[in-house]
């Protein structure tokens, strides 16, 4: 499977990163896949599916680990809302997703990735 190979390649590239850096890289990678898939229905469906899998994982983690998750409740709630938006758009629009909506999915991934990295910087310098 081509997507499995892409995942393996990412694991090799991301091997020396911290967990937060890996999460940010995975979101950035998904954003790149979405952007590069424009105009190719097969690639777009695969990119949307990959992105949805990431967001299902995010939702699962922030929803199930309340007592162990140091993240503020408001941040967890916002991530759940974003994951619902990603799922709604993916299932409703599919390969017929509008460019503006696709841009929003890409921007969400990039902004969350940036936030993860910015949040990790103070911990690195301490």
Report on this model:
This protein is mainly alpha-helical. It has one domain (19-121). It has helices at residues 2-13, 19-36, 41-64, 73-93, 99-125. Helix 2 (19-36) runs antiparallel to helix 3 (41-64), helix 2 runs antiparallel to helix 5 (99-125) and helix 3 (41-64) runs antiparallel to helix 4. The longest helix has 27 residues, at 99-125. It is globular.
Could you tell me the number of beta strands? Answer: 0
> SSE order, as H and E?
HHHHH
Q: How would you characterize the largest beta sheet? A: none
Strand content: under 5%
The low-confidence runs, each spanning 5 or more residues with pLDDT under 50, are 1-5
Count of separate DSSP helical elements: 5
Instruction: Compute the average pLDDT.
Output: 85
Outline the fold blueprint.
Blueprint: H1 2-13, H2 19-36, H3 41-64, H4 73-93, H5 99-125
Helix pairs in contact: 2-3, 2-5, 3-4
């Amino acid at each position: 499977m081509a997507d499995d190979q892409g995942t393996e390649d990412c694991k090799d590239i991301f091997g020396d990163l911290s967990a937060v850096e890996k999460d940010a890289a995975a979101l950035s990678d998904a954003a790149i896949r979405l952007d590069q898939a424009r105009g190719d229905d097969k690639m777009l469906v695969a990119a949307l599916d990959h992105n949805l899998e990431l967001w299902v994982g995010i939702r699962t983690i922030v929803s199930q680990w309340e007592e162990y998750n140091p993240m503020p409740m408001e941040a967890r709630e916002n991530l759940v809302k974003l994951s619902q938006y990603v799922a709604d758009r993916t299932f409703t629009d599919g390969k017929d997703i509008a460019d503006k909506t696709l841009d929003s999915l890409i921007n969400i991934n990039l902004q969350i990735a940036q936030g993860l990295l910015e949040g990790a910087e103070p911990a690195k310098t301490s």
